[in-house]
Design brief:
The chain is an alpha/beta fold and about 250 residues long. The protein has 2 domains: about 90 residues, Beta Barrel (Elongation Factor Tu (Ef-tu), domain 3), CATH 2.40.30; about 130 residues, Nucleotide-binding domain of ferredoxin-NADP reductase (FNR) module (Rossmann fold, 3-Layer(aba) Sandwich), CATH 3.40.50. The chain is about 20% helix and about 35% strand. Strand 1 and strand 2 form a beta hairpin. The radius of gyration is 18 Å and the shape is globular. The model has no long low-confidence stretch (mean pLDDT about 95).
């Protein structure tokens, strides 16, 4: 009997561009099993000479999707796996995957506490799985997403996030652009800070559960700011990644 940690051969069934540097890849899995929002999969590439490269990518799709998963991947300069996915992989290609993996950075819609999600760049991916899961499960717990991007062109899932915001009991969506802003921009124009977080936490109340995902320094800064606002460490879960990899 297969388990979550057994490698299986998945087939790429669709590839969708999200931004100039980000694409979503849909993979069909012969031994699919439900994931929890926030989990990830390992991908492994094997060259003809036996050399292998392996990376982990968060699942973007909700647990309610069956038989397949979406992995949204940013192309990293000199990244072995992300470069292959972006420049070589086409629908119908096969590669090895292992998962779902992870038990700490997960959220299940049965939880009723207010939800604060804070994303930096491609850190939005596991949080998007949570938001999609929340919608599919028709959860109505108060929720807010703060999403920090460098520029407007770097916002991943922008159109769908707006659709989620407009849905019944949809989350509050807060954008901030740290490097440049288009004319007429109405969101924030600075890095996520304690003041920004306080404005989000206040209406959510003392029982809020926070999930923070992004580069290491971003995640640490946000987590420290949330503690300074009175959240306990048990209310904060972080998922972080370094500047290299892919």
């Amino acid at each position: 009997m297969k388990t979550a940690l057994v490698w299986q051969v998945a087939t790429a069934t669709a590839i969708r561009p999200e931004t100039p540097r980000v694409k979503t890849f849909t993979f069909a899995l012969p031994e699919w099993m439900p994931h929890r929002a926030g989990q990830h999969y390992d991908l492994r590439l094997t060259a003809e000479d036996g050399y292998q490269a392996q990376r982990s990518y968060s699942v973007a799709s909700p647990p309610e999707r069956r038989g397949e998963v979406d992995l949204t991947v940013e192309r990293v300069e000199d990244g072995e796996v992300s470069t292959h996915l972006h420049e070589v992989l086409v629908a119908g290609d096969r590669l090895e995957m292992r998962g779902p993996i992870g038990g700490h950075f997960v959220w299940d819609a049965v939880r009723s506490e207010p939800l604060l999600l804070v994303a930096g760049g491609s850190g939005i991916v596991p949080l998007m799985s949570m938001l999609r899961h929340r919608l599919a499960a028709e959860a109505n717990n108060p929720a807010c997403l703060i999403y920090s991007s460098r520029t407007h062109a770097d916002i991943i899932y922008e159109r769908e996030l707006e659709q989620l915001r407009r849905a019944t009991a949809g989350p509050r969506i807060v954008h901030t652009l740290t490097r440049s802003q288009p004319s007429g921009w109405k969101g924030y124009s600075r890095r996520v800070d304690a003041e920004m977080l306080a404005e989000a936490v206040r209406p959510l109340g003392a029982m809020v559960q926070a999930y923070v995902c992004g580069p290491t320094l971003f995640a640490e800064s946000v987590a420290n700011a949330l503690v300074s606002l009175g959240l306990s460490e048990g209310q904060i879960r972080t998922e972080r990644f370094g500047p290299t990899g892919g």
